[in-house]
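For reproducibility, we list the full input for the hypoxanthine complex.
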Amino acid sequence: MSANDPTAEAITWATDAVKAALGGRSPAVAVILGSGLGGLADKVENAVRIPYRDIPGFHVPTVLGHKGELVAGAVAGVQVIMQSGRFHMYEGFAAHESALPVRVFASLGVQTLIVTNAAGGIRRAFGPGTLMCISDHLNLTGRNPLVGAVLPGETRFPDMSVAYDADLRTLAKRVALGQGTQLDEGVYCGLLGPTYETPAEIRMLERLGADAVGMSTVAEVIVARARGMRVLGISTITNAAAGISHGLQGHAEVMEVANAVSEKLTRLVAGVIGELS
Ligand code: HPA
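The corresponding predicted structure, in tokenized form, follows.
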């Protein structure tokens, strides 16, 4: 095993610290908040906030729009834990570091993971502000968080044929319909970043079957599946991907659109969580 491998001890240390801070709360659902989508954390009732600096192995985020805390409490009567601040691989984190919070959630007994992200739209019909339920993903980061020793509770070759739970997708569509929110569906492609794509790369990804592209999520979902959690993923399309629009890509635009859609997405995710009780 190399020094870059995830270790069972690192997960235990982080889990023990979070468990101590939770004060007896036992979250059933974990939510990872993407760029500009942190508003969901304000929905949590009786919230306990756990800064990353209090959790061994968690780092303070360097990306604008990402806080560095876990927020635990109730949403619609369901105990949740929200991750406000990701560890992106483009920040220099190994894939297993990027997915450490998911292993901690699994160790806490969380059974359902909801991942949100900001993404560029590849499918022509996906303009800025589109909400896309992730049906499947392409992991083109070149990294996998399961590389290395097989950790307790995981298997060597996890099945990824139904990475995004069919029942949760149906539920999300039903909740969206009830709220008058349009929820599209498509394939998310995860790249390493941090550059946005070239138009040629986007044309390639389109031919490969990607509907949206981003720089997160896939490592987290791989770990969630390895630990037997069911996953719902929702992308906010913040911009047309390179070459599809004539504009240039920028983080300010991503944040602006994500913030504008955040209320609709917050309502949708809270509605889904309420149906999980
Ligand atoms: N490409 C990659 N990641 C992104 C994009 C994009 O166009 N928009 C938001 N995240």
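The chain has a mean pLDDT of 93. The domain at 8-275 is CATH 3.40.50.1580 (Rossmann fold). Both points were considered when choosing residues for closer inspection.
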